[in-house]
Amino acid sequence: MTTTTATLRMLLLICISLGQIRLVSMQSTNVPLDGTYLITMVADPDGRTDMFLQINGRDSGFVAYGQGDAVAGLVVAVYLRAGTRVSARYTGHYQGATSLGVGFVSHGSRFVTLRCSGQSSGPPNVVKFDHRFLAARIWSRNFVKAHNLQIYISGIYWLAARPDCRNGAVSLDVGTGLFNVFCHGDRAISASGAFYLQAGKNLIVTYKSGCYLEGATSFSYVRLEGNQQKYINHSQHIAFTAWTDRVGGQKKNGKLSFNKAKATDYGFLYNSAQRIWIIPTTGSYIMSMRGDPGGYTLKVTCYKNNKYVFAWFNEHGSKSGQAGVFQFTKGDWLYMANEYGRYVGKETFMSIALLWVASE
Question: Is the dihedral angle over the CA atoms 61, 302, 359, 197 positive or is it negative?
C-alpha cells in the first residue's frame, strides 16, 4: 500500500462490461446498459476512512469503513438503468488501495441483495434481512421473509457477506461451510467468492456472536453464467468460468500454494510449480481474496504479469477480504503472495470469475 500525498487525488478503477478500463478522478461513472451489476468498493484507511456508495448522487445505505491499517471492502449486486451514475464519497484519510469497481453481469441475471432488518445480538441466530433496496429483483417474497434463500437454478453464483461489527465482535457464516467472515472493533468488512450451487440449495446466513448494525450488514448473491452462453461451450465444464480454492497449510511469507492443481478445471490453468493462474479468455473479471491471519497481522498481494494489482491487509486477527473488477487478457498470469504475517490455510482462499467476454 502506498501512502497518499497531498497532491494525490483519489483514482477509482472502473471496469465496464465491454472490456474497457478507465481511470476516473471525479469518483463516478455512468453505466452504459440496463442490467445487473456487481459493485466493489475498497477502503484503505490511514487512521480512519468511511466510504459511502452513491447511486445518482444519493447515499445507497452501503458503506465500507475501517480504522487503523485494516483494509475494508464491500461487494453488492444491483440492477441499474443505463445512464445511472455510480460514485463514492469518503470521509477521513485514505491510502493507495482505495478503489471503486463496476462490473456488468448481464441484462437479466437473477440476483438478491438484502440488508439486515434490525440490530441483533445474543446467541447464534439466523440473520434477518430486509428486501427493500433499489428495486432489487427478488425472486419470491416468501423465502425472504422466512430468511431461507433458496437457489432455483443450478449454476455459478457470486456470494458476498459483510457484517458491521460496531464495537463488538461478529462471526457471520454463509451456507453450510462455504465461508465465514469475522471482525471486531468498529469496522464493516466483507468476504466473497464464486461457488457452484445446485438447485434446491438453501443459503442460510447466521451469526455466531456479537452485535451487528442494521445499515451496513448485508448479503448479496448473483448468478454469473447466463450472459456468457453465446461465447463459451459450457459442455466442457459446467463451471467453466470460475474458480474458488483454499490455500493449503499454515504458511508465512512467500507465494501462496493452493490445494488444487487441475489443468482444465473451470477454464483456468493452474501451474502448481510456479503457483500461477493463466487467464483463459479476454474479458472483465471479478476477483477476490480472503485471508485468515490466525490472530495476527497479514498482508496478501496479487500480481499480474509480475506487476502489482491490489492487496489485502488486516490486523488483529479479523477474517475478511476484498474484491475488485478487472480487465484481463487471455494469457495473463496471476499469482498471490503474502508479504508478511501468517495465515491459516482452511480459511484463506482466492476466487475469480468471468463477468463478460470482451468484444472481438
Answer: negative
Alpha carbon distance 119, 151 (integer Å): 26
Integer Cα distance of 90 and 10 in angstroms: 10
In a domain, 4, yes or no: no
Cα–Cα dist 341/343, whole Å: 7
With cell 448522487, the residue in question is 57
For range 8-31, the mean pLDDT = 40
Task: Domain count for the chain, please give it.
Answer: 1
Residue 335 lies in a domain: yes
DSSP-assigned beta bridge partners for residue 222: 111, 158
Q: Which residue, among 286, 284, 278, 269, has the nearest Cα to 321 in the 3D structure?
A: 286
Rounded to the nearest integer, the mean pLDDT of the chain is 66
Mean pLDDT across 245-270:
57
Report how far residue 218's alpha carbon sits from residue 41's, in angstroms, rounded to the nearest whole number. 14
List the domain range (segments joined by +) for residue 256: 12-357
* Domain assignment of residue 2, yes or no: no
Q: What is the pLDDT of residues 180-210, one digit of tens each?
A: 777 666 666 777 887 777 787 777 777 666 6
- Grid cell of 24 as nine digits: 476516473
Grid cell at residue 120 = 441483533
Burial of residue 137, with CB atoms counted within 10 A of its CB: 0-12 exposed, 13-18 middle, 19 or more buried? middle
Whose grid coordinates read 463451471?
239
Q: Which of 247, 244, 271, 322 is nearest to 71 (CA)?
A: 322
Task: Report the CATH number that the domain containing residue 276 is assigned in CATH.
Answer: 2.60.120.40
Q: What is the pTM of this model?
A: 0.70
Weakest-pLDDT range from 14-28, 51-65, 98-112, 297-311:
14-28
**Burial of residue 154, with CB atoms counted within 10 A of its CB: 0-12 exposed, 13-18 middle, 19 or more buried:** middle
User: What sign has the CA pseudo-torsion 127, 137, 133, 244?
Assistant: positive
Which amino acid, one-letter code, is at 297?
T
Query: Shortest CA distance to 164 belongs to which of 127, 137, 194, 203?
Result: 127
